[in-house]
Write a structure and sequence with these properties.
Elements: H1 4-15, H2 17-24, H3 28-35, H4 43-52, E1 56-59, E2 65-68, E3 77-79
Antiparallel strand pairs: 1-2, 2-3
Helix pairs in contact: 2-4
Length: about 80
């Protein structure tokens, strides 16, 4: 399974960590901690990050979390 972090990290780094943190309203040090695996984010913050890079996070009934990057059609990959 691919994690939300694994799916969002390349999008965040491509857009710039500082800029994405600003757009998402998340302190940049907190975002860096999450990207480096030293912190967890709430679903709400993950959604804000996804929106800041033009993606979305979905939580489905079975509890799995999905992140969908732009341009990937209607398919999303399961993530922890």
């Amino acid at each position: 399974m691919t994690s939300v972090r694994d799916q969002l990290e390349p999008l965040i780094r491509a857009a710039g960590v500082r800029e994405v943190a600003r757009r998402a309203g998340i302190p940049q040090p907190r975002l860096s901690e999450w990207l480096n695996g030293r912190a967890n984010l709430t679903v709400a913050r993950a959604e804000a990050l996804a929106a800041a890079v033009g993606a979305e996070v979905r939580v489905v009934a079975n509890g799995s979390t999905h992140a969908k990057a732009p341009g990937r059609g209607g398919r999303s990959r399961s993530a922890r």
